[in-house]
Amino acid sequence: MSNCVLRVENATMQFGGVVAVDNLSLEVNHKEIVSLIGPNGAGKTTAFNIITGVYAPTNGAVYFKDQMITCNFPKGSMKKLYAGQNLGKYTTTMKKTPDQITKLGMARTFQNIRLFKELTAFENILIAKHMRSKANFLSASFCLNYKEEKKAREETMQLLEILGLLDVKDERADSLPYGQQRHLEIARALATNPELLLLDEPAAGMNPQETAELTAFIYDLRTKFNLTIFMIEHHMDLVMDISDRIYVLDFGKLIASGTPEEIQNNQRVIDAYLGVPEDGEE
Amino acid sequence: MTLSTFFQHALTGISLGGAYALIAIGYTMVYGILRLINFAHGDIFIFSMASLPWQIAIPLVCILTVALGVLVEKSAYKPLRSAPRMSIMISAIGVSYLLQNLATYLFTALPRAYPEIPFLKKIFQIGPVSASLVTFITPILTLLLVIALLFLINHTKFGMAIRAVSKDFETAQLMGIRLNNTISLTFVIGSFLAAIGSILYFTDRMSVTPFSGTLPGLKCFVAAVLGGIGSIPGAVVGGFVIGICETYLVAMGYSTFSDAFTFILLIIILLFRPTGLFGEKNIDKV
Amino acid sequence: MKTSKKIIYTIILSVLVLAFLFFLDVNKNQYGMAYTVLQKGIIMAVVAVSMNLVTGFTGLFSLGQAGFMAIGAYVTAIFLIPSESIGDVYYISGVSPVILNFKTWMDSLPSWIQAISPYIALLIGGLAGAFCAALIGIPVLRLKSDYLAIATLGFSEIVRAVISSPQMDTITNGSYGLKKIQGFTSLFQTFAVATVCISFMILLIRSTYGRAFKAIREDEIAAEAMGINLFKHKELSFVIGSFFSAVSGGMLAMFMRSIDSKTFSISLTYDILLIVVIGGIGSATGSILSALLVTVSKEWWLRFFDNPLYIGNFQVPLFRTGFRMVIFSIVLLIVVLFYQRGIMGRNEFSWDRIAENLLKIKKLLRRNPKEGGSKNV
Predict the structure, then answer these.
(1) Contact A131 C203 (CB under 8 A)
(2) For the structural domain made of B3-272, what CATH number should be given?
């Protein structure tokens, strides 16, 4: 097995005539922290949605641990509309649903926090354990899976402790302060026992101090949970601090990739960022 | 089926379809603007049962129905504008429940004769096809009203406000559109058309009960979904399709299945073309 | 509160309820009204909890309850019409040979099976409902909120149309309905079946599956990202909910002894919705409380609204047939508009909560006379 955990091949996503992601290819290797950056509207979240199975790409394929999880090519009316490259390279259609992909070991967080708002922090994490439960609805109802249930609860408590949420475990998720909601979302993703964690703007809305804390925290996560991390982020200090490699998207196209130093000195990246007003931090 | 009975049924079907179309417009407009199935829509016109001479009854029915429609909006939907979808729907069902029970209380549940409108009942004969005047009037009136409505929506300031609000509540408000007035106006138009539709619908029927409005109401909703909810021409087409299909089903002897057919049609449309014939496509943003 | 204390309280409560039921069962002639109304109430509680499972816990706004109840009721009824009365029931259009053969076969079964036949009938009725739900669920559960509501409402009307259609005359007796259905002989049987049904649903809600349902209610996209298969879980909740709706339909048929397709009209679904809303959408115990409360008041305590009321010689206006239902619908609207959480909100009954509330009341009582006017809050 190769070292490559996630491989996106020539992925193009077109909504009608709009090309949101254009021929994107990238790789994330085992235990790497890789960032995807780019100005607003560059197609970063769309790329995430392709990887996690929310959208099927118009053309292209995604592999997770060398296993194909998504592959598609233009069909029907899209055949005429399609403006991307590599037409004819892909001829199979397959798409795993987000839940299947999560089961394979990929977890994500969302740009606009999507917690189970009216449930407690504890329940939020416990729900992520459901997927690994072997009980059917009858054995679960009659508490025949009590061992599994007990283990799930213990693991949930451990996660809450690691993420510093133990004292708010019985609070409703939507009553938590913003920073803790972000933490809870990461905890919930970790509860699915992922190998690859996708973070969509984990530092959005945080002040510099909180961002610094988050940087250390993400760094810790990798060692503690033996994780590979792929994230979208706008905070450049965070990105440059912890990324092993960086991919830069602009108008759906990959314009650069490499180590933080290489990216910082890349003229195309500088142009892309200075070409648009700096408003990435709202 | 001979050619003349075929035409006879076609005419009845088109007429029924016209009445459905007028009621369906109310659903589609309210849904377009509030994203709410106005379950009470089919019940508001039941209050047209008061027996009065028709010269007074027709305007009275229109005024009362419009007033009731607006009252329902102000009292049951407005307070819930920011509430979850389900609460608003339950409120709509609650209003429908209340109106039915209120009508039962006021008029008793026994069927009563619908007020006779003599000139609409006059029988006309064109070739082999004979029908009452109302059957001929309904489709024509429907088309005229729809054209007037489309003009109002597309070429007047009010119409522009309605279109803006249906696209985006908050932005429309920021542009200086009075949200509540616009929504009330939508209910006025919808209820007025429903009043006309109900008069045309019930004139051809023997009797009404407080529950007579529910099923035609639901069918008109299906018509609106068939045409693509939010689209006025869609609602009209949907209304005619359902009216005509239903008439032929009854003519072929499947009258008990004519109601079921409407809902089977609904499930089929929702499966294969959830946005209906003319509806807009929405993409959920993640 | 300590666990042991809670257990003691629970036992005391159960004993009290049992004693009360026993008292009613013994004196059923004297308290006929309470006897019938409570039975109907507990049957409504089963269907209300099942609706709550689907609507309140899984977030699927389904309005098909009446249809599933009809399926359960008709299947159970056909099972339980004694073979000697079959001719009387189907006297108009005759009876289908299938039913006749089935009845002869049933009569040939050993007596112990016949003794438990009501339970088997309920189970089969429930399975029939669940089967229909599984079929209809495949297309319908892909729909979003209000479309789902209208599609399930439509399904329930289709069921009704099929039942009352002339083509089904020899099976469902068309629009004449079925009569002479054998019911339970004692109140305890109804309550036992209802308790089993409700307990199962509550256990399911408390299990890991129940949490998955709640996750779907809160946020479908996040639930899917957590590895929850949306369709599988929605279908599961819908099928189980419909199973118990159908069982309660069968119980209703046994309770009413005669049914026809009008019994299961849309307004029955609205009645159940009213119960669920008043009890609290997302609270099983709330639904039970509210089912008993609503049924008892509707069928018994508030009957007087429907009768002319005289104070001396003066007849109070408004009081006549239908007034009760008007009051009821107004109550529903008030609850929806002003108390959206209903009696229980999304909370469940627990001794801890009661203890908390008692403490609060105590504090209030104690504080008021001493520092009634104090400003610090």
Answers:
(1) no
(2) 1.10.3470
